[in-house]
Amino acid sequence: MTAKRKENDMSAGTIKVPTRFVNDTRFDVAIPAAPFRGAAEHKLDQFKDWLLKRAAVPSANPDLMTRYQYAATEAATLAWMTPYPLLVLPVLLEEKLASARLHAERQKQIRGKSECIMAEAA
Questions:
Q1: Is residue 26 part of a domain?
Q2: pLDDT by residue (tens digit) across 31-74?
Q3: How many CB atoms lie within 10 A of CB 51?
Q4: Is residue 4 a part of any domain in this protein?
Q5: What backbone torsions phi and psi does residue 39 show, to the nearest 5 degrees?
Q6: Domain presence at residue 21
Q7: I need a labelling partner for 1 at 20 to 30 A (CA). Which of 17, 22, 65, 101 fits?
């Protein structure tokens, strides 16, 4: 290998590449302030509780009441994401409570079948 070729051979590490660094470019980002909806949130929460008391008859089954509470909270959360949460909440809550009832009924059937199977196995 000739000396000139050896100087240009990058794998030999003989060529030094000059580097230069430029200052970082910075941008001013304006973050818009979210509107404060504290009063509306409080009204929505009160409305959710009122609707839940009207729709869900107090049950002796604490599991079902827990499911209703969870469904009501989920409905309120989804309603809050809409432009008109107080208008949307009743329909969403109705759908979520129906789903909770259906799920509780399925769980009850599954438990009944499981108990029968476990009784036969014992």
A1: no
A2: 766 566 778 888 999 999 999 988 876 666 778 888 999 999 99
A3: 19
A4: no
A5: -65, -40
A6: no
A7: 17
Distances (CA, A) of 107 to 3, 66, 101: 83, 14, 10
Instruction: Locate 25 and state its tokens.
Output: 């470019």
Please give the residue range of the domain that contains residue 48: 37-121
Nearest residue to 79 (alpha-carbon basis) of 51, 101, 56: 51
> Angle at the Cα of 85 (from 81 to 64), degrees rounded to 5?
90
Q: How far is the C-alpha of 122 from the C-alpha of 107, rounded, in Å? A: 22
Contact predicate 68/97, CB 8 Å: yes
Query: Are 48 and 70 contacting, i.e. CB atoms less than 8 angstroms apart?
Result: no
Q: Dihedral of the CA atoms 114, 116, 121, 122 (nearest 10)? A: 110
The model carries a pTM of 0.61
Output the six-digit token pair for 89. Answer: 């909440």
